Amino acid sequence: SAKMGCFTFIKVMMILFNLAIFLGGGTLLGVGIWVTVDGQSFLDIFGTISSSIMQVVNVSYFLIVIGSILLVIGFLGCYGAQKESKCLLMMFFSVVLIIFIAEVAAAVVALVYTGLAETLLTAVVTPLLKEKYGTDKSLTHIWNVTMTEVHCCGLNNYTDFTDSPWHKEHRTYPEPCLVGGLLPVARPHLRGCLLQGCFDQILEEIKTNAGVVGGVAAGIAALEIASMAVSMYLYCKLDEK
């Protein structure tokens, strides 16, 4: 009786937890579709910050992908526990395990290959800036927004724009790279505000918020491990029923 009571309690918790995931995924999916269909009203409500973000990342597709994944996970976990379906519980376990492994792999790659990533990005992005910045409106706008919001200049520094179409036409560097509208800055300002390459600046922001990022990542990993453990517990207990 005690074992059955424990099984029922864990089953109910599994259902409620995954119902919350399912509803959250549905909300994100709905917002993603809303942004795709009527992006202007989204910008009107959430203002200039959302506009800047949307210029750098295609928010609608990102929300649709994340929302869809959460919907699938929530459905498999909630319905699998409610129906006591071993097949759905195993599918839930497998999907969460794949996501967990992918997150660990991404973290390892980010830690180990940061230098390699910078080298590869420099090899790809710098020639692109020199070739298209100032003529390609989309690329120019995205970089202007990024540099303004992140307070950085180029991928490595202002020299990334040397001999670009913009530099040849205006005989100067992009406005975010200028101090007092006159001189380009090759290294950060004494107060740490201005201006360095976007790659270093983004890395610095990540390091500054490493505790928060690490805490969030650890929390997500703990939830994933717990959900896998619970789904496997229910899966194994169904054999005993």
UniProtKB/TrEMBL annotation:
CDD domains with a match to the protein in the record: uroplakin_I_like_LEL (cd03156)
Primary location: membrane
Residues annotated as transmembrane: 12-35, 55-76, 88-113, 212-236
Keywords: Glycoprotein, Lysosome, Membrane, Transmembrane, Transmembrane helix
InterPro entries (alphabetical): Tetraspanin/Peripherin, Tetraspanin_animals, Tetraspanin_CS, Tetraspanin_EC2_sf
Matches recorded under SUPFAM superfamilies: Tetraspanin
Gene3D superfamilies hit by this protein: Tetraspanin
Topology of this chain in the membrane: Multi-pass membrane protein
Location(s), subcellular: Lysosome membrane; Membrane
CC per GO annotation: lysosomal membrane; plasma membrane
Domain of life: Eukaryota
Coiled-coil zones: none
Complex formation: Interacts with SLC19A2. Interacts with NTRK1/TRKA.
Function, in words: Structural component of specialized membrane microdomains known as tetraspanin-enriched microdomains (TERMs), which act as platforms for receptor clustering and signaling. Participates thereby in diverse biological functions such as cell signal transduction, adhesion, migration and protein trafficking. Regulates neuronal differentiation in response to NGF by facilitating NGF-mediated activation of NTRK1/TRKA receptor tyrosine kinase and subsequent downstream signaling pathways. Plays a role in the inhibition of TNFalpha-induced apoptosis.
Family, as annotated: Belongs to the tetraspanin (TM4SF) family.
Protein name: Tetraspanin
